[in-house]
């Protein structure tokens, strides 16, 4: 049996090796999206050559909420107006030496976190400066014509205005809904939309974490995972928080290709509000499991200072980048927090 196996492996190697070297030296001709003709020995799956860099700071994104340009209607309704521009030609160094073609809303992955109060009127001026059709599909309640599915916005400056009332209360994703959907999502066209209750929530140190994956070799399997796009970022740049202070995380899972993701917190448990639609928590746990676009609000307080991990307890994901650290400072002596909250 062993002899037969050795002979088979040996024959396979003889047959395989010449074909392999031949394939490596064979030049293939490709026409890129911009019309350029190139010759290459490599596999070219998505030949985009308009290289521009993307500036993205996960620490800035974490606590950055966009309230829009605010005005009032005659009846007192608050109007929040935003401009969101889609592009699909940017390249970002997502990990040292790994360059990835990101498709962006307002130049980043994820796009800006849009925040409103229930009942506000949202006006989103969408401009598609990409080379493909794109849209914005908001999760939430709105008229059919504002759903970002059937009204694909043409490339090269196409425009559409999404207008709807903010609701329901909670945390919702928004993302492009042009087919093939997995391609438009995995490249980065998504962001977070928070709707606050009219009565507000208890003051807290608030942050947004989008759980995402990066398929950098286009084989429909993720090579990296992250909270807020850059693998291992919050492990190398721990998030500083205070002990005895309420922490609120708006968490949204946007991982494509894998059926589940999850969020495990060390040294603590959190109150969890699925979708954030209810003001009473459903669970008190240290572990939630999320499918794609599943999201919620986590609230917790650390009693003890120190360094605490948070990560996917799908261990493969944490070992490929979805891991971070909370650095809890001892503020038990001080009465007031020095964190400034959003308005
Ligand atoms: Cu798209």
Q: Could you please describe the fold and organization of this structure?
A:
The chain contains five helices and 22 strands. With 343 residues, the chain is mainly beta. The protein has two domains: 58-196, Sandwich (Immunoglobulin-like); 205-329, Cupredoxins -  blue copper proteins (Immunoglobulin-like), CATH 2.60.40.420. The strands form five sheets. It has a six-stranded mixed beta sheet, with no helix packed on it. Strands 3, 4, 5, 7 and 9 form a five-stranded mixed beta sheet that branches. A hairpin with a 5-residue loop joins strand 3 (69-72) and strand 4 (78-95). The model is unreliable at 1-23 and 45-50 (pLDDT under 50). The structure holds copper (II) ion (CU). Residues 134, 176, 178, 184, 189 line the site of copper (II) ion.
């Amino acid at each position: 049996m062993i002899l037969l196996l050795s002979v088979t492996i040996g024959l396979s190697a003889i047959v395989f090796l010449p074909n392999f070297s031949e394939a490596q030296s064979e030049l293939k001709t490709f026409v890129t999206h911009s019309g350029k003709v190139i010759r290459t020995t490599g596999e070219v799956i998505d030949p985009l050559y308009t290289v521009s860099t993307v500036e993205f700071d996960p620490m800035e994104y974490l606590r950055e909420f966009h309230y829009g340009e605010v005005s009032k209607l005659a009846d007192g309704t608050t109007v929040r107006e935003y401009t969101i521009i889609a592009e699909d030609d940017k390249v970002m160094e997502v990990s040292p030496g790994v360059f990835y073609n990101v498709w962006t809303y307002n130049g980043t992955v994820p796009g800006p976190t849009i925040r409103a109060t229930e009942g506000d009127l949202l006006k989103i001026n969408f401009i598609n400066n990409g080379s493909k059709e794109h849209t914005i599909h908001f999760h939430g309640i709105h008229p059919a014509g504002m759903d970002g599915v059937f009204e694909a916005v043409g490339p090269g400056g196409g425009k559409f205005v999404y207008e709807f009332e903010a609701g329901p209360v909670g945390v919702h994703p928004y993302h492009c809904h042009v087919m093939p959907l997995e391609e438009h999502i995995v490249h980065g066209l998504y962001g977070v939309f928070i709707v606050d209750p009219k009565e507000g929530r208890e003051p807290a140190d608030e942050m947004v974490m989008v759980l995402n994956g990066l398929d950098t070799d286009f084989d429909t399997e993720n090579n990296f995972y992250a909270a807020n796009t850059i693998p291992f970022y919050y492990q190398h740049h721990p998030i500083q928080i205070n002990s005895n202070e309420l922490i609120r995380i708006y968490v949204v899972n946007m991982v494509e290709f894998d059926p589940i993701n999850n969020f495990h917190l060390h040294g603590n448990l959190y109150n969890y509000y699925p979708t954030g639609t209810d003001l009473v928590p459903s669970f008190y746990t240290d572990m939630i499991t999320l499918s794609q676009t599943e999201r919620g609000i986590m609230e917790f307080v650390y009693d003890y200072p120190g360094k605490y991990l948070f990560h996917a307890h799908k261990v493969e994901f944490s070992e490929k980048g979805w891991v971070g650290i909370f650095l809890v400072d001892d503020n038990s002596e001080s009465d007031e927090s020095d964190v400034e909250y959003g308005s």
